[in-house]
Amino acid sequence: MYSKAISKILWYAFCMEKLLNIQEMSKLIGLSTHTLRYYEKIGMLKGVARNEQGYRCYSEADLLWIQFLICLREMDMPISEMMHYSNLRTQGDSTVYERRVMLEAHQDKVVQQMNKLNENLGRIGAKIEHYKGLEKTVFCEK
Amino acid sequence: MYSKAISKILWYAFCMEKLLNIQEMSKLIGLSTHTLRYYEKIGMLKGVARNEQGYRCYSEADLLWIQFLICLREMDMPISEMMHYSNLRTQGDSTVYERRVMLEAHQDKVVQQMNKLNENLGRIGAKIEHYKGLEKTVFCEK
DNA sequence: GTACACCTTAGAGTGTACTCTAAAGCAATA
DNA sequence: TATTGCTTTAGAGTACACTCTAAGGTGTAC
Fold first, then answer.
1. Tell me: the pLDDT tens digits for B50-92?
2. What residues of chain B lie within 8 A of the CB of A113, using their CB?
3. Does any domain span residue A83?
4. Which residue range(s) make up the domain with B114?
5. CATH assignment at residue B33
6. Which residue of B82, B116, B117 is the best one to mutate when testing the A interface, meaning the one whose CB has the most A CBs within 10 A?
């Protein structure tokens, strides 16, 4: 799941009970430090600990949550919706049902999107074949 | 492929050798008139005929090209890349190979994206199952 | 002790793809 | 002939998700 170098960071961090700084977390998950701060600023990423200097210290729980956020973003969930989900999560177990409904609704959207993508792949596949035919013709006539 | 109402427009338009105005084209393909003008302004949609009043008159060829543009957009091809494709097309048959290469490259991207989507669908699927379990527990304990 | 490389914040700037507005012209209807 | 509803254009505005900057603080290396 992670590269060797990154596994090493994780091992070092969590086995030695050290929290990650923003740079380490950024490298680990592939979001820029800017984006990590942005997600925190808009309230999508709450409760990140700070050290004596006010520097961010990310825990393993933060890591898991950020990975989940990335998963949602990769499925094109808008930030506004992710904020809503995040707020529900903050409210605790009473919102589990609502969260499930949200995820299921998004699941449906992604499935629809994939169907559309498949359909369009077929179309451009046909176009590619058509072009291959044209290329041959041009080649033979030369 | 089209709804009955829209098939009627098409029948009326092409069987009677009438060209479509911007409103009709907009309804037919599901892009706003704004977007149709925008695509023309940036040069992605060239050679749309005009009547004596300077109003746009879309041909069947325009329709097919716009549908292809929509297909590319639905597969998240950036406008800049679509512009490039459009420019190649304008240059004629000598660019067929380059166009095919572009389409194949994009095909690959879409396949990768779909793999990613599938992976993430698995993840949220697992989360949904987890939530279902939690919901049951809460229900039973009450 | 000073250079360098990190961290913090608020807030400004960017890129993409539209989306809308204002001002003006055309055409059918009351 | 005036209203309504369409069309045109250039150009301004919007939404989204970052991405960057400026100004200041901290910590280690020489």
1. 999 999 999 999 999 999 999 999 999 999 999 999 999 999 9
2. 117
3. no
4. 91-142
5. 1.10.1660.10
6. B117
